[in-house]
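OP here, attaching both records as promised.
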Amino acid sequence: MARYTDCYWTSHDGLKLHYRDYHAGSEGAEARPPIICLPGLTRNARDFESLAEHLCENWRVLCPDLRGRGDSDYSRDASTYNPVQYVQDIVGLLDHAEISRFTIIGTSLGGLMAMIMAPMMADRIAGAVLNDIGPVIDETGLARIRGYVGQARSFATWMHAARGLEESQKVAYPDFEIADWLAYAKRLMVLGSNGRIVFDYDMKIAEPFNTPEGAGQVDLWPMLARLAGKPVLLVRGALSDILSTDTLARMQAELPGCDTVTVDRIGHAPTLDEPEVRKAIDALLAKVA
């Protein structure tokens, strides 16, 4: 039985946007700041299924589908597929759900959004997890992502879909077995109207991302610095081609007292289901007042 409710809010430009609302099961949880889980570029609310099931024992957890993903509406204007617009949408979600303080767990693009939000609402952010992302994004990783995002591939069966993901992303998850690839495929894809397995996002999200300025030239370091003094966990895959060790080291210097975990034999990005990451997230949340 699902432990969440499917809910919706409306963006300022009229899109119906979806989120999963995992209500906490324990007493006193309503007094704790909820957790907002923000997914990566081609991902959706399902990316956090396992983590949300774990956390909702003691916390309310909201997992939104960004515009153009999952059960959220697609935008007619592809230019709105950008981090600033995504942040504006999430601010609308916070207002809709009447959330005054919250902890952010952001993977990749979701972590960029967390940094952008930091100066906007520093007093409302209770803590943050930045998963394999920093103010500087390695060009190697960007080139790899541009090589597959927006390609409308489809597959005859879930097994074909799993094998397709293994072919394109084994560099990030060298130890995945076929069961892992199948689970991964079911997070990323859906059964399309034509009976084939398709990626669960609007292919037009690639248009702004693939422009020269699409990855963003904004200096995110001052934004990251606004998280200083809060409970922060930095997660990195040891094989990451997005977050370098140099960038991670500078992030640690900018955020004195932050926690860090590096996941061996994982690239971009850790699933957040790894035991060491779960333990670190639980430890971070214990610090959130």
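Record two, same layout:
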Amino acid sequence: MTVEVKVPVLPESVTEATVLTWHKQEGDFVKRDENLVDLETEKVVLEVPAPKDGKITQLLKPEGEIVNGDELLAVIDTEAIDEAPETTPAESKAAEPPAPTEISGVPEDPSGLSPAVSKLVVENDLDPSNITGTGRNGRLTKADVLNFLEDRKTSPAAQPSAQTAASTLSDASPPGARNERREPMSRIRSTIAKRLKESQNTAAMLTSFNDVNLQAVMELRKKYKESFEQKHGARLGFMSFFVKASIEGLKRFPVINAYVEGDDIIYHDYYDIGIAAASPRGLVVPIVRNAETRSFAQIETEISGLGKKAREGKLSMDELMGGTFTITNGGVFGSMLSTPILNPPQSGILGMHRIEQRPVAENGEVVIRPMMYIALTYDHRIVDGAEAVRFLVTVKESLEDPARLLLQI
């Protein structure tokens, strides 16, 4: 009996995907729910698992090909049996290795490697003991070797030392060489580029700035950090304060939580806050939904979980869809000041920056305080400058006196 592996049904806003990486090859055996292939969409990388145990008899879409929902990707024979010998470690150690034989000019490895795997091992001068096998009983598959080679290319350990790199560079190209290379954008990067350009072309973007004294927030965090973490199992960071302060500002100036649709303004009576995060494949903006109903601990826990998923490339489509307002923190990378670009169709995005100890005047005296510049980029088609400035003042006041967030004043 054979079963078909198809492209999963894509969300309504996603029309196609790219075959990114096959984790198995024709002839490999797979287990049910084992990841077969990664598909890259405009927003996330989708994993397509095997529906049944069996042997892959056909791979119909090569890496790099564009596919649509419900297209056939592979065929699995569920009646095929993995004939890899089942031996205990003691038996393997005691058994005498057979004499090597020649297959297509490549010696068959005495440790039981398949001809295809042996060929790859010999051609790339590899030690099979350094590669983790995912086949039955830890057997090496062709995919294991290919993945090992790919990882070796990108891992820091595989990079040459400065001396070796300099030597290699001098051998490969003379000083002053002007080499170039062309690489296609990933689907996610291409989508990011299109959306940012769309934002520039459609919205009348303007940015206002203010600065915030974070002394009170830092003292609050220092005082309750341990007890907060012990009770809630979450670290008390800065982002929950900024989310809460932003919601207070959005409640006072709801047009910043709205967007333009034709000649209409669509207002939201809820607050789905997007938190911009860096991922290996580019910028993503996972959403904390109904953030106005969440406690500080719930916000911190959710942001931490979404950030971890972003770094691992495991965000789902639902976690990236929608959002009424966005917060981005360039400060974690050292940014002092920036003008963030709107995340369409939203009408506002708050930019956080690095905290610096700066001299400020308080009660007629110069004191050193932890200061941060904040920026609000807004769509001037529907948001007036006065509303934008007053929104930033609300955020500033809420952060400089956090009791306001609890009392909602």
